[in-house]
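seq:
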Amino acid sequence: MTQPGSTSKKLITDTVILMAGSGSRLQAIGNNLPKPLIQIAGRPVFSYTIESLEKAGIKTVHAVTGSNSDALLAGLRPLVPTGIKLHAIHNPHWQKQNGISLLIVAKQVRSPFLLTMGDHLFDPAIVDLAIHNADPNALNVAVDRKLNAIFDVVDAMKIKTKGDRVVAIGKNLTDYDAIDTGLFVCPPEIFKYLKRAKRDGDCSLADGVRAMAADGKVRAIDIGNAWWQDIDTPEMLTQAEKAVRILNSRRVAFRPRDAATSQKDHRSDRVNKKQMQDPLRQTKCGQNKKS
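struct:
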């Protein structure tokens, strides 16, 4: 395989975002907006995602839609910056698992691409980390090894690694050492494995990852202290809102004063940046179940 880190930003210009689901668990509490348009600290979830992708040099976003596509796209388009093309692809079988949504774009991407979910929030550093450390010939999964800091670990996609290799994946794993953050750098080969994994016309992304892992083709990229959050449930939504507000307040509080900032202050800023990356580290530890 190509050495990790040999993939440059210039090679990753396409991102696929899966956003075909209905968000039924949030609808149960009366939140009927498509999940990418849900407000977090006064901004739609998608606005955070597209901002991170723009900073990473992404040029085309393939948005796989399904439930309530018209309303979703009407809300997404004004949020897309001029330097990025939004390519919407409707999945008529959106009720099926997310592997089918990814297969929808098989003819649209011919080179390694970034893959993420429409209901995940990321520290922008994770996107850069994944791109710069990816092996273009492998499936690269950004993983979180801070197990005690995971909110609702029961619902999380668990991963077992051996070195930097993923050897098992599944929500019901009992032996695991990392959590799938929902951010990947994928080779086009993923589509072949998803097709193989289909049973009765359906498959999940995890099925494809599991099949590639069996052939030794899945790598784990550790996100370190960086922060992320899925917003699949009301409790996760509350957690994300709290984290983003903390991050926003720290960005204001820790902004360097001017170009003459002392060396001592620079060292302090580096410490503060690390704190910003994991906003709920102290409050989350030991609280890995739904509140």
